[in-house]
């Protein structure tokens, strides 16, 4: 056996070991990457929500059936906002374990909160574009076009709608 | 056509009630969106393709409801409600309904 052949077989062996290790570690890597990226994205989304919500200070949102009393409105229009948020791989993995023991799913509750706030914000932003100062009779409806497949936890779809109230001019 | 989900319209008076109008649509995701959604499920976050689908479905249901209201000679729909139901895995119905009225 010449030394060149020896080096080649060593290289091939090393490649097999590395690929094997990668194949074995891949699920854990995806879990780790999913969890880290998902957490970072969630954090930035919450910051974005807080920033947009503070920009809407003074905008009245109610789920009352009639416009708030004491204010004069000239017109009303239907406005709506919808969003679909996916859960990340880490959350889904944790939720599967959680299902064995029961109890509260904090990470999934946070996902729902994100989606709900986002849907309401989109609705309010549409109302603002119409010149409204208030939205009444807000309803929030959950849908299931794609994200909830066969009972697997993978996301949530929410739609918020209400009547935008445009104030009387002058 | 004025649409509101309140029982009355601010600044207008209802003169005549023409009755219940409705519109629905059943939508399914397509494979391309499904693959993207599968990838997105690793890191989480918004599934824009599905959000679009949901928005389109809502607009379609509303426009069908509005067409029915127009055929009844109404110029507004009050007390609009949306409802969803899952027909089969991967497909969902979006249903909009309200009361067609004539306002002045």
Q: Could you characterize the architecture of this molecule?
A:
The complex is a heterodimer of chains A (170) and B (104). With 170 residues, chain A is of the alpha+beta class. Chain A contains three helices and four strands, in the order αββααββ. A four-stranded mixed β-sheet of chain A has the order 1-3-4-2. Chain A starts with a helix and ends with a strand. Chain B has 104 residues and is of the alpha+beta class. Chain B has two helices and five strands. Chains A and B meet through helix 1, strand 2, helix 2, strand 3 and strand 4 of A and strand 1, helix 1, strand 3, helix 2 and strand 4 of B. Strand 2 of chain A pairs antiparallel with strand 3 of chain B.
List the helices and strands and how they pair.
The complex is a heterodimer of chains A (170) and B (104).
Chain A: H1 3-54, E1 60-61, E2 73-88, H2 89-101, H3 106-129, E3 134-143, E4 155-167
Parallel strand pairs in A: 1-3
Antiparallel strand pairs in A: 2-4, 3-4
Chain B: E1 2-3, E2 14-28, H1 31-43, E3 44-46, H2 48-71, E4 76-88, E5 91-103
Parallel strand pairs in B: 1-4
Antiparallel strand pairs in B: 2-5, 4-5
Q: Give the % helix of chain B.
A: 25-40%
Strand order of the largest sheet of chain B: 1-4-5-2
Q: Distance N terminus to C terminus of chain A? A: 98 Å
What value does the average pLDDT of chain A take? 86
Which runs of chain B of at least 5 residues are low in confidence (pLDDT < 50)? none
N-to-C series of helices and strands of chain B:
EEHEHEE
- Please state the CA-atom Rg of chain A, rounded to the nearest Å: 25 Å
Which stretches of chain A of 5+ consecutive residues score pLDDT under 50? none
Largest sheet of chain A: 4 strands, mixed
Assembly type of the chains comes to heterodimer
Computed CA radius of gyration of chain B, to the nearest angstrom? 17 Å
* Biggest interface: A-B, 53 and 45 residues
- Terminal CA distance of chain B: 12 Å
Instruction: Classify the secondary structure makeup of chain B into a structural class.
Output: alpha+beta
Rough outline of chain B: elongated
**Helical stretch count of chain A?**
3
Strand content of chain A: 15-25%
Tell me the number of strands of chain A. 4
How many distinct beta strands of chain B?
Answer: 5
Largest beta-sheet details of chain B: 4 strands, mixed
């Amino acid at each position: 056996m010449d030394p060149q052949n020896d080096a080649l077989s060593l290289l091939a062996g090393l490649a097999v070991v590395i690929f094997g290790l990668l194949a074995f570690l891949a699920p854990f890597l995806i879990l780790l990457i999913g969890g880290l990226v998902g957490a970072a994205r969630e954090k930035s989304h919450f910051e974005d929500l807080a920033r947009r919500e503070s920009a809407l200070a003074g905008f009245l949102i109610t789920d009352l059936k009639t416009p708030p009393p004491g204010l004069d409105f000239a017109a009303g229009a239907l406005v709506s906002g919808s969003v679909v948020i996916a859960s990340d791989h880490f959350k889904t993995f944790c939720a599967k374990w959680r299902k064995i023991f029961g109890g509260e799913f904090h990470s999934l509750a946070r996902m729902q909160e994100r989606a709900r706030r986002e849907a309401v914000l989109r609705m309010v932003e549409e109302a603002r574009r119409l010149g409204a100062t208030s939205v009444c009779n807000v309803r929030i409806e959950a849908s299931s076009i794609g994200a909830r497949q066969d009972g697997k936890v993978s996301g949530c779809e929410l739609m918020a709608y209400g009547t935008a109230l445009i104030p009387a001019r002058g | 056509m004025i649409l509101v989900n309140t029982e009355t319209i601010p600044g207008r008076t209802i003169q005549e009630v023409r009755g219940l109008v409705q519109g629905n649509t059943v939508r399914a995701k397509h494979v391309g969106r499904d693959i993207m959604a599968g990838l997105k499920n690793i890191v989480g976050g918004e599934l824009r393709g599905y959000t679009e689908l949901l928005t389109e479905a809502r607009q379609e249901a509303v426009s069908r409801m509005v067409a029915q209201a127009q055929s009844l000679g109404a110029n507004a729909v009050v007390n609009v409600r949306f409802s969803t139901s899952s027909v089969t895995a991967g497909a969902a119905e979006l249903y909009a309904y309200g009361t067609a009225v004539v306002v002045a």
